[in-house]
Amino acid sequence: MSFQIGDTAPDFTADTTQGPIKFHDWIGDSWCILFSHPKDFTPVCTTELGYMAKLEPEFKRRNVKVIGLSVDPVDNHAKWAVDITETQGATPHYPMIGDTDLSISKLYGMLPAAASGDASKRTPADNQTVRNVFVIGPDKKIKLIIVYPMTTGRNFDEVLRVVDSLQLTAKHRVATPVNWRPGDDVIIAGSVSDDEAKKIYPDGWNAPRPYLRIVPQPK
């Protein structure tokens, strides 16, 4: 099963490094980042988990909960965390899901429905498609999906930037242009008519083209 932006993120129950959870209940009224890994003790993922540990306070400030997933058991995750701390200089304090029966990976379309077998005997190559980032809103809808190859480390600074854009555009009827950063100018959404825009932006806007209406970022 595959998902698109705007679909409801499937709910599930799972064991994590912080105890059992029911996913939608765990998200609550927060935003959520679910990011997956093909195997514990893999080099690229080790660097990713460490960087996410450093960045997690920034996500918390934005009311975003972080949760990881790997197909190995929760006990392995705890041992892996020691390596992450020692090699990356940061300890993951967010939960990590143990998806030993591959059920969540299959539920989220990261592995074929027919995938099976002992998770401990599956290689990273067997699970190479379990390299997704999902951003999920408080409404439990999927807002972003990024899929990475095993050999390319993820850019979590970009994920943070996207969260800033998603939260801004969810609150205001605007869109963010290429390479936007918080504080940069934004674009009035196409769904807003010029008449509406005049009420929202009485000082007007810069329009190099009628469809490209640029205004300062709303507060």
Summarize the topology.
Elements (H helix, E strand, L loop, with lengths): L12 E2 L6 E2 H5 L3 E7 L5 H19 L2 E7 L3 H15 L7 E3 L4 H5 L24 E5 L5 E6 L8 H16 L2 E2 L10 E3 L5 H7 L5 E4 L2 E4 L4
Parallel strand pairs: 3-4, 4-5
Antiparallel strand pairs: 1-2, 3-6, 6-7, 8-9, 9-11, 10-11
Please, could you describe this protein's structure?
This protein is α+β, with helices and mostly antiparallel strands. It folds into two domains: 13-154, Glutaredoxin (3-Layer(aba) Sandwich), CATH 3.40.30; 172-215, 2-Layer Sandwich (Antioxidant, Horf6, Chain A, domain 2). It has helices at 23-27, 43-61, 74-88, 103-107, 156-171, 194-200; strands at 13-14, 21-22, 31-37, 64-70, 96-98, 132-136, 142-147, 174-175, 186-188, 206-209, 212-215. Strands 5-4-3-6-7 form a five-stranded mixed sheet. Strands 8-9-11-10 form a four-stranded antiparallel sheet. A two-stranded antiparallel ribbon has the order 1-2. The longest helix is centred in the first third of the chain and has 19 residues, at 43-61. The protein is elongated and about 60 Å long.
